Amino acid sequence: MSNIELIQKAIELVEAKRRFALASVIRAVGSTPQKAGANAIFAEDGQMWGTLGGGCLEAECRRRAMDALDESAPLLFDLKLDDISGWDDGLICGGQVRVFVDPRPEKNRSTYRQLVEGYQEGRSGSLMTRVGGQCDSLGHTAYHPGHELADPNLTEVYPALRELLERGIAGSVRAPAGNGDELYFEPYFSRPKLIIAGAGHIGRATAHLGHLMGFDVTVIDDRPALARAANLPDADQTICGEIAEELEKLETDSNSYVVIVTRGHRHDGTVLAAAVKKPAAFIGMIGSRRKGLMIRQGLVEQGVATEADLERVCSPIGLDIGSVTVQEIALSIVTQLVSVRRRRQWGAPAMSYGLENHRNRPRGRSVAADGTAETVAPVER
């Protein structure tokens, strides 16, 4: 369950007048089952949604959440995960987490609604919850649409908040005045767009896995029998038409991922020509290294793209997991998309997406969109 789904569940429970506590890992140091941003709902009747990492950590948080509900008072506490005294499952991660438990989340219902409505309309935003300090507003959550942090009350912590936002991660910040004030910051970004050119077997499987990974999936194909909702039940949008032309019409940005898996080399090349000039976090094309090189050379010779334009194209697409079946190929593709997404989020060095990234791949099978395969030998250095 994603955090936005958890917030939707919280709204549902509030409207049903069910008592529950919302628990969040607001800080994590060292090796821990979950990082800051993990949330869970502990209902008074024992039901639970979300996770804080499972095992004894979650069991201890559940126990304290029940105490918070009994006292109707928020809790802020630290747990050191190498202190396993009395914990029968022997958790020895060695890290430490800080957890905040809010037993009165109903007071934030309107704030949660603003977040969910904005998210459903494709807008990003942040939640800011007061979790520490000597005040009566502990647990109070504010919504900042568009991650707008230009608030006079946030001046002292603005640099720390900006750092969290730029990395795209949740975390807590403390006021430098040393008065104990602490805020928990949760950024919520609009769903990344996954545009799949080709609705064949691999396109369909990639749409399914992309949906499970939280992408907003659009699939384009020029075959009416394939470009329809019945064939692509997990796609948010299906488009039937000339693939390159339809791709050119779509708005893309730095949160867009383009996967080219059409039924043949000619179609792949035409679609790549349309995609390479568009803004995107990732552009990948299926097929062998040889095919990728031929298409690149053709686009350069035609003056459609430069070598610099094509450096960001990943071909062959997908992490090398030795995939053979359609499902395995789709898994390798979506795994790469998640890797790119998370590396960007954590500020890790960008991967090289061009052909150089595949020059030293171990011997294996490269699968084209039409299902044919060829053995790829490693290139001599």
Keywords, please?
381 residues, alpha/beta, Rossmann fold, 2 domains, 6-stranded parallel β-sheet, 17 strands
Describe the structure concisely for a colleague.
This protein has ten helices and 17 strands.
Radius of gyration: 24 Å
Structural class, judged by helices and strands? alpha/beta
Helix content: 25-40%
Give the CA-based shape: elongated
N→C terminal distance = 46 Å
Number of helices: 10
Side by side, the strands of the main sheet go 12-11-10-13-14-15
Largest sheet: 6 strands, parallel
Q: Assess the beta-strand content as a share of residues.
A: 15-25%
* DSSP, total strands: 17
Task: Reconstruct the topology from this structure.
Blueprint: H1 3-15, E1 20-29, E2 39-43, E3 48-50, H2 55-71, E4 75-80, E5 96-102, H3 109-120, E6 125-132, E7 141-145, H4 158-167, E8 171-174, E9 182-188, E10 193-197, H5 201-212, E11 216-221, E12 237-240, H6 243-249, E13 256-260, H7 265-275, E14 282-285, H8 289-301, H9 307-310, E15 313-314, H10 326-345, E16 364-367, E17 373-376
Parallel strand pairs: 10-11, 10-13, 11-12, 13-14, 14-15
Antiparallel strand pairs: 1-2, 1-5, 2-3, 4-5, 6-7, 6-9, 8-9, 16-17
Helix pairs in contact: 1-3, 5-10, 6-7, 7-8
